[in-house]
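Why should sequence recovery work at all? Because a backbone constrains its sequence more than one might expect. Tight turns favour small or flexible residues, buried strands favour hydrophobic ones, and helices have their own preferences. The token representation captures these environments compactly. In the example below, the structure is given first.
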């Protein structure tokens, strides 16, 4: 179970970074008509990164709890 939390968290963080890269490569800037080109990749990237950090925090809390249970 421990490795599942870690795998899911790093998967979400990777997807978030991938969304940021896609935003920077394809949808960033102003076109020739003066219209701002934005996509859904930027908020989706933040959502994935923050979700990954939350899952990683759950992993760390679980590991800390197991370590405290062994020491007592």
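From this structural description, the recovered sequence reads:
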């Amino acid at each position: 179970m421990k490795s599942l939390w870690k795998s899911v968290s790093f998967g979400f963080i990777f997807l978030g970074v991938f969304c940021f890269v896609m935003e920077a490569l394809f949808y960033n800037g102003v076109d020739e008509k003066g219209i701002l080109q934005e996509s859904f990749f930027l908020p989706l990237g933040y959502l994935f990164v923050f979700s990954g950090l939350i899952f990683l925090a759950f992993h760390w809390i679980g590991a800390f709890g197991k370590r405290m249970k062994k020491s007592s």
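A few observations help interpret the result. DSSP finds two helices and no strands in the chain.
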